[in-house]
Amino acid sequence: MPTYNIVNQGADNTGGTAIDSVLDRLVGSNTTINFPPGTYKLNDILVASGTENLTLRAPDGARLVPGRSGNVRWIEARSNGFVLDGFELDMRNVVGPPFIKMDSAAGNWELKRLVTRGKVRSNTDTNVGSNNSSDARTFFRLSAAQGTRGLLQDCYFHEGSATPTQASNTRAILIESSSGAISLNRCWFELWGENTIYAKKPAGKLNIFNCYFRNTQNGMRLGGNTELNNCVSIKNAQHPQQAWSGGSLQKGVNVEATDATNSAAGIDSYNGTLTVADSDFNHRYLDPSCRGAIAAPVPCERIDIRNCRISYNSTKLNEDALYTRNGKMSDGTPANLEYLQLSNVQVRNDYGTVYGIAIDQAPDTWGTVSGTIGGSGMQTNSSYVENRMTTNGSPTAPNTTPPLPSPPPLGQVPLQSASLVRIDNSGNSSATTFDVRAGTYIGPAGDNGATLTTTWASSVSAKRPPNSRRATGTVPAGRVYAFYVTGGVTSATKSGPATLTVDGQPYTSASAASMSSDGVADGNLSD
């Protein structure tokens, strides 16, 4: 497996000369290309079908700058096993940045430890009120082939596409179709003017774990076969306007099962369960742009809401804090809600003319309904909910602590000094229990196909920095769990057949100190 140092191979790390010719010469299957610290100008790279397991990695962080602009490709993969790891994506002096695309033929890709610098402005941002949706642009276009996976992890989109008073046509994430499974883990979103996450269509499983959304257009537009866990959505100030439509709104989760199933195209917005668990929504901005925390205008097949906390106030007419409607799919078919669970749901509604929970479409089957509704606004229009939840009570307030570390300062990438703890129970027939403790932070990771566990801490608070310093649980037989650790592994124990490694090396208590700063990536840059 060749490993190259791109500077030793002739690439300019000052940003003066594009690296395309050097990079194209090095690209190949089962190849790692390491980028020492510096600035690299890249016009574009296409990882074609047949080029398997290519890794572009900056072990100590590096900066990528687009060499061209407009609605054009910057980085695209059409193969299996592509990894982009450890970069600042510098858009500060780019008007109309190019896009990053994981093609529908791509699989087992990982985009991780990336931070975007500067506003991702579109060259159509001035077309305010054009009413032409083709003016919209996308920064990250994601898909995965059937039977494969994709991972977007530790990626920061926190500078957004515009200032709060500007208009923008750039969306952060588009998952228009996907047959494979895609996971977003520890991603931070703010101040996007178009859709923040548009992902209502993919047939494959979509996980959105440990993510943070604040004052950003449309929030999450989702369909069935999706799980949201340990996420936070905040709407407490103005956010950028969507340029082409002139609209401005932020929901937390918006369920839109509008598209008919097309399995060959990787599209299925209706079938499956949308789960929203252990998440917090603080939507309290006295403006019509502040919308419901969990909305289902066009419900998918099943909706499961568990252990969620909502606080809501707005001035938007007829917009409840949590609701289901009698919506129809684009072909006119009623979107039938077969199952709805509201387990330990805490809602405070202080908007007097709307409901904390409005059930306009009751499900065919109810799951558990429990929790508390309170606040000065109306409580619920559903007698079924009213008879099972406490109304006019004192609901638990949202925990608005971001579920991931703060954005790194300029010149650093996310979790730059982190170590990777891997508990590998593959090939074994019995489970393994574990207890791993970190000096500063620990959080689950999906590297190399590891299962992203959602049950690694005792409470929501224990999953949020600075309290997230301990991971415990059980790795089922045949599975692998992984965690990023900063501040060193202070202790790690297991009981069972799994192997426990830190940065690829077997862990022993005597080695803890020496493993405190090795980092996730292989630091060998000598080739």
From TrEMBL:
Superkingdom per UniProt: Archaea
Region feature Disordered, mapped onto this chain: 388-410
Ranges of Pro residues composition bias in the record: 400-410
Protein name per Swiss-Prot or TrEMBL: Right handed beta helix region
Naturally occurring in which organism (per UniProt): Haladaptatus litoreus
